[in-house]
Design goal:
With 342 residues, the protein is mostly helical. It has a single domain, classed as Hypothetical protein af1432 (Orthogonal Bundle). It has helices at 4-16, 42-51, 54-58, 77-94, 99-108, 117-127, 134-149, 156-163, 174-197, 208-214, 218-233, 243-261, 264-286, 293-299, 304-314, 317-328, 337-341. The protein is flat and about 65 Å long.
Length: 342
């Protein structure tokens, strides 16, 4: 039975949200029928299920850009997710979209990411004949892997937004579009901060034409882009940035690929990650009995290669290194970092 709180929420959405927003009461529903929560809307309930999932907790120890960062202030996959959620909510709020839906999508969009960031994703995609993409795996996490193989049974709108958050995706809701653009805004700007903190970039090396358009600080750039989205999208069935700001963001993104994401140092680290994941992938494909019990049970429902990818992609950076060492490095021969450098 619906509570007064929930009915009031529905009434507020009708009164204050844009006609283009996805109202909570209009959800297309869940894959499996279940009794609705008396107090929370379905999108609020989805957000809570994601936050309390095991996959969400593991993101705190997964790479965003720099592998297994030791500094306290480098971003991880979880802090990136929180950044995306905050920006997506800001976009949704200024456009009178459904902030609860945008938040749920944002919090779930990277649940399927591998250890070692996109290097891990590229590795599994090359290894597995079924292919591997983190957005598809994120949907698999919420549909299948969580809750001991029963999934979280999320709404269509949240699942769609998770699947289509990558650039080039086609979200079914404007809230999904808000998350997609928030993802790019977040990782470009916050990765700049991490790269400068790590000594990979200097402030003065940033492309000045793009900085002049977007701003000299992270705060200014994010504010400029959200303001541009508002000016070009308010009252319309679209979420987009102005051409000038959008082009500047894309050029800044290209700069980051050239100077941070794909450099000699990152290639060296990526090669190490690839070798580790390749060795573990081949081992578990040929020794399926060595998989943990849950993933062995998955191999009875899905192709073995998929179950192995499920296991490897679930790992945090440090756990992946620990499993690799346990499988392939004799403990008495394991070199410490000091031994390697001496």
């Amino acid at each position: 039975m619906e509570s007064e709180i929930k009915r009031r929420r529905y009434a507020m959405e009708e009164a204050f949200l844009s006609s283009y927003a996805c109202k909570s009461k209009d959800t297309r529903g869940r894959q499996r029928q279940e009794e609705a929560c008396g107090m929370r809307t379905d999108f609020q309930r989805d957000r809570d299920r994601i936050i309390y999932s095991k996959a969400f907790l593991r993101m705190k120890n997964k790479t965003q850009v720099f592998f297994s960062p030791e500094g306290d202030h480098f971003r991880t996959r979880m802090t990136h997710t929180i950044d995306v959620s905050q920006i997506a909510r800001s976009i949704a709020r200024c456009l009178a979209l459904n902030e609860d839906l945008a938040e749920a999508i944002a919090l779930g969009h990277d649940l399927g990411h591998t250890p070692f960031g996109h290097a891990g994703e590229r590795s599994l995609n090359a290894l597995c004949p079924l292919g591997f993409a983190h957005n598809v795996q994120s949907l698999r996490v919420v549909d299948v892997l969580e809750n001991e193989g029963r999934g979280l049974n999320l709404t269509f709108e949240v699942r769609d937004g998770i699947l289509n958050h990558k650039k080039g995706g086609t979200p079914a809701t404007l809230e999904g579009c808000a998350v997609s653009i928030a993802d790019r805004i977040a990782y470009v700007n916050h990765d700049i901060e991490d790269a400068i903190r790590a000594g990979v970039l200097k402030e003065e090396e940033l492309p000045q034409e793009e900085i002049a358009v977007l701003g000299t600080s992270t705060r200014e750039r994010i504010n400029t882009m959200i303001s541009s989205i508002y000016e070009n999208s308010v009252g319309k069935n679209v979420v987009k940035m102005g051409e000038r700001e959008s082009a500047a963001l894309e050029r800044l993104r290209s700069f980051m690929f050239e100077h941070v994401y794909i450099t000699e140092q990152t290639k060296k680290e990526e090669e190490r990650a690839k070798r580790m994941l390749a060795a573990m992938y081949e081992y578990f494909v040929t020794h399926a009995e060595k998989l943990p019990a849950f993933y062995r049970s998955l191999a009875e429902r899905f192709p073995l290669e998929q179950a192995v990818c499920d296991y490897l992609s679930s790992m945090t950076d440090k756990f992946a290194v620990a499993v690799f060492e346990n499988l392939f490095v004799p403990r008495s021969w394991a070199l410490t970092e000091q031994d390697v450098e001496s």
